[in-house]
Amino acid sequence: MALDTRQRGVWWSRSHFLTRFVGLTGLVVAGVALFLALLDGVLTLEVVRLGWDNVLMILQGQEVQWNAPLAVSVLLGGIVAGLFALIVEMMILLRVVAGRRSAFGFNWAIQVGLAAALVVGLNVFSFAHHARFDWTWGRLFTLPDDVQRDMRALTADQGKTTIVVFQRHKTFGRFSDKTDAYDYAAEQKVVEKVHDLVEQFRDLGPQFEVVVLDVRDKEQDDSSKTTTGDDAPKAPDDTRYRAKPEGYYDKVEKLPPELRQAIEDAPENSIFFHARGQVQRMSFNDFYRLDKQASRHDGNLVLNYQGVGPFARKVLTIEQKKPVIGVATVHPLLGTRGDYDELTLAGLSKALAAYGFDVRDIILKRGLERRGSPEATVFTYEENKFEDLEEQLAFLDKSIPAIGDQLAQYTDLERTWRTSSLDDLNKKYGRQLGKIDEELRETNVRRLQAVCDQIKVALARREEQRKTAEGEKAKLNQDRIGEQRRLTDLKAKMDRNLAECDLLIVPRITMRNVARAQYFTHRIHRLDAQQVASIKEFMKAGKPVLACFGPINEDPEDAGGFDQLGAAGADGLEELLGELGIRFGKQTILFEVEEQAFGQQRSNPFSTTGNAQVPSVTFKRRLAGIGTAGETASASPLRESMEAASRGLGQKLDLPVRNPRPIYYLPPREPQIGAIASLVAMTPDLAALPWQALYVAGAAPAYPNAEAEFLLTSGDAWNEPQPFATANRQPSFKMPDQKDPSIGTLDEVRRGPFPIAAAVDTPLPPGWSSDPGQRVRVAAIGSGGLFVGQDLSPVKEKLLLDTCNW
User: Fold this and answer.
1) pTM over the 0.90 mark
2) How many angstroms separate the CA atoms of 37 and 372, rounded?
3) What is the rounded CA–CA span in Å between residue 786 and residue 711?
4) What whole-number distance in Å separates Cα of residue 320 and Cα of residue 286?
5) Residue 26: CB atoms within 10 Å
6) Which tens digit of pLDDT belongs to each residue from 710-744?
7) In sequence order, what are the residues at sequence separation of 6 or more whose Cβ sits closer than 8 angstroms to the Cβ of residue 1?
8) Which of 132, 197, 246, 786 sits 20 to 30 Å CA-CA off 667?
């Protein structure tokens, strides 16, 4: 008996230890699973209920379809293990409570309870009194002090901020549909870093919610919905088994409508920020930029961290007023609402709107479509639409009664032919038609009925047009439009429209395809002096301008027909930008592929050679030579951004620009105070003299500043002062005569490359502002059609966004 007792004690102690181990391990695992379930937001009462029912059915030996989230499943499993161990311990305690070792067992139970209470208490305490320690060398997981200060200013009552990490598996929009291992690795790293950053935000401000969406999950959802036949998954009839982990559509359905629409429109991997009905978006590349070229060279993933600043700004500025970009054109067809694909700037508007800009058209002329001199004016797209609708309604108000009268006349005529006797019809129409019989009567009745039906259709169409026009008119802010129309002072109205803008874009499309003689004279874009004065006031306020000006060369055979549009040559706005150092070339840049096209186009006007593909621009610096001071210490940030995009893509960016003009930046002359001016400054009695007369201009720079340039043509190009083909001449490169006065200047005819875009942050010239420290940013591109089209290519979109955000 003693032997048997000892044997049972050995197995019992081992089983007891195993039970305790399973129970305690289950509790630890349950705690971890609870934390993960709370973190992922999958712990709901419905999920817990369904999961518990599944646990009970498993314990009963029944077959079930397990579909609870993993974290919830582990949590329930840990709880079951803990309960099992607790039941065993309670049975042991009741058995030995009266034995010799009762005191020892009771003491052990108390110790276990105290340990459990200590663990739970410490965890509960840590939720309210936790601390974060960043022991990395560069404190990579610590927000900058200014960001912490701004984030703490956000209060919890401002609502929850939702951050959506959207993986479309496309980098740089539609640059390329091909992704490789570096792209996928970069995406996963960005998702990880977003979670890390949001965890830091949670310590400082309101609660954040992170949602990760992957289009591959969407594809899986779509495939599961379309699966049919024997392979289709069959769920039990019991509704308890219909719960499943959230898929792509489940997550999207919970998002607000405006956020869903923004996700649908996103062209690339993006991070969205949503709070109180407002949405902002940033590209993955704005957070971590992949350098695929360096990654391939090093054989390892190279990501350039863009800093927490852009991410934090999106969070902090969600509810701020959208930046307003004004687009100043001379005709509605050339604006963002135009419906002609080869002239509209609709693609520009869509690209800017997708990144949180508010784009508005400003129309600067009226009457271009009519003969005679156009009228300088200022009106918005809404004003133009209001006037168009009024003209349309006035026409319909006249045409609808006229069509009604026609219908009444034909109806009376049809009734006459149908009801009158043959004698009466012969008396009335017999002389013109001959003898009228019953057959002719029926024929004319049917013909007149068909005419009446056609008139009824036309009348219904006109009435529907009138109803539509009245509905569109009712949607417009007629009070604001009426106020704008009552303002007749040109400059005051221009000032008022520009005051609402944070950036002004002035596109001037001229040369579309000179080889095919497709162009607009630059004279249609000439502005009134008052309009130029308003733009000057706009820049004096420190607001930036993007000028996209095409060449101003004119066909000598057509130039005489443009006199009613104003004088040839540069207008006041070009001269104004010239005061800031922007030098617009006087020629049109042609490429070697176009030289051949001119000859073929002249021999065969229906040839398609005029559409020859011109070379892409480059973002590299020019070598020393005519028109450049050589290498500079720093480069244009726009050029660096585009070069970084090229490295990230791992290939050259394709951006052909047809028939541009050269653009240079010559820093304005630095005025110096001469000796007389110094004397006046020390003599109060002479203070009333005109100071501007005492300035002595400094020397002009010998070469333009290449630092400002960010687009250059290829080398197989030349600048042509007369780019139009005539009966006796076709454009081709010829060395200028040595007596040509342009030799050695920027206007010298030469081979490329040529700069066709420049961006500068420059101080205002003397006399513009009383504040000597006032600066303005100006960018100029030598093509008015670079951003034309219903949609922009990814490269053009990036160039536009970089320029507007610069």
Assistant:
1) no
2) 74
3) 12
4) 20
5) 21
6) 888 888 888 888 888 877 778 888 888 878 787 87
7) none
8) 786
